[in-house]
What we know:
The protein is of the alpha/beta class and 555 residues long. Strands 1, 2, 3, 4, 5, 6, 13, 14, 15, 16, 17 and 18 form a 12-stranded mixed beta sheet that branches. Strands 19-20-21 form a 3-stranded mixed beta sheet. α7 crosses α8 and α14 runs parallel beside α15. The longest helix is centred in the N-terminal third of the chain and has 21 residues, at 127-147.
Amino acid sequence: MTDIDIARKAALRPIAQIAEKLGLPEDSIEPYGRYKAKIPLKFIDATKVAQSNLILVSAISPTPAGEGKTTLSIGLTEGLNRLGKKATVVLREPSLGPVFGIKGGATGGGYSQVLPMEDINLHFTGDFAAIEKAHNLLSAIIDNNIQSKTTSLNLDPRTISWKRVIDMNDRSLRQVIVGLGGTGSGIPRETGFDITAASEIMAILCLANDLMDLKKRLGNIFIGYTFDKTPIYARDLKAEGAKTALLKDAIQPNLVQTIEGNPAIIHGGPFANIAQGTNSVIATRMGMTFSDYTITEAGFGFDLGAEKFFDIKCQSAGLSPKAVVLTTTIRALKYHGGAKLDELTIENLEALEKGIPNLEKHIENIKQFNVKPIIAINRFVSDSDAEIELIWETAKRLGIQVALADVWAKGGEGALELAKKVVEIAEACNQQFKPMYPWEMSVKDKIKTIATKIYGAEHVDYASQALRDLRTIHDLGLNELPICIAKTQKSLSDNPKLLGRPKNFIITVRNIEIAAGAGFLIPITGNIMRMPGLPPKPASEHIDIDEQGNITGLF
């Protein structure tokens, strides 16, 4: 059966029962229909958060073959619950762009899914729509102020980098001109659209501690300069109050369930190649408040999402994971070793051995944060015994734990071995993670630290625009913000064609964007697309609905 077939056959429990299992009385949640609910922020308990075991699920460098990080996160949660541990999975919300484009949904797969699958992958509880509206409200306020004759701040349109957003892959909107149609329609200027997951407001929502912190961060969004070079922030436009009002429900995390009837919290959805790539701080703390074990994931490979998870999210929120589960597939490692995409189901020990250095580098990176890694082999039917044995030998040589996981086909049962090893490591953990850099380090040194220690680069080069941006950051007094490098997810380098574990390469920073509201700087390397386009045959072609309202084609 397909993922959607399996999801549809699952017996969904009323959300009140899931809330009760989590530890919330029925009258304390805000239901969105029968199977979804919002959880009020007041239930977060800092004392309980400090006592919970936070487990991060990451992965090797992504490939077109897929690694199954979300599926593994859900399966591991099911496995821990089967062991008698109170465990909750905390994930990001899917973006409609990938759902209708290439990647598909983000609710797991097989017998390791979060439900209701169709709702979560489509509009869910409206969080993305609220973020989109709050973002575009600021866009409208900016253009209105430029045109105003009475309240104008004298904004220089050439310095404004704030665009508009829409939760759809639409390449035609990447670059647009607004204000056409005469003086009554505004001042013509060049701008464009990003996808909603790339909005700074998405990043802000996922790093905010509470409603008032959200409001403060929204006011700190850097807009541009006046003609006399005075910096302008969203608070200067008096925009933060209205934007926060639009997000008053969206800031509350969403409660759903796994296919085995365990609680799942899903909230926020920033991409990891352009933002921090993890669910909200609020959702993570909520899961930790009510669980012995909270399982969360960070986008793409460890070099992207997980590095930002540690250096931005964990430092900001005071979190410290007890272990990192590194999702690994044999077919992905063979791809990194040079095997062709259509030959990954064929046993190829030579390609696997050549691809293993990618795994080794990610293991090395995890250890740099003073956290213990566990290799989780996300098993596929094409994996041979000899290939599996080679991974076991690698783990033994590196002195780390390894476990087979068959969560797509078996759900929690297929994660019992992994769950036992996670418990073993978490219960023995008595140290805090070590950040890669202190925030007060210079911007250049922070970038160099990530590029050399995490990516394995030899050197960092700066384009002339990036050097100008460094001066701007200094002038604005933002030197002590953490770094969120925008980089291809396909390689440890900034060149997507360099697979495996590249060496002797240079990272080139083209420019550095300022996300003062989110509280980080974004060095741009390579060609990072903030508004993807649809493929020649988009996934939307296969999505349909019948007269009974049954949706098909989601995956």
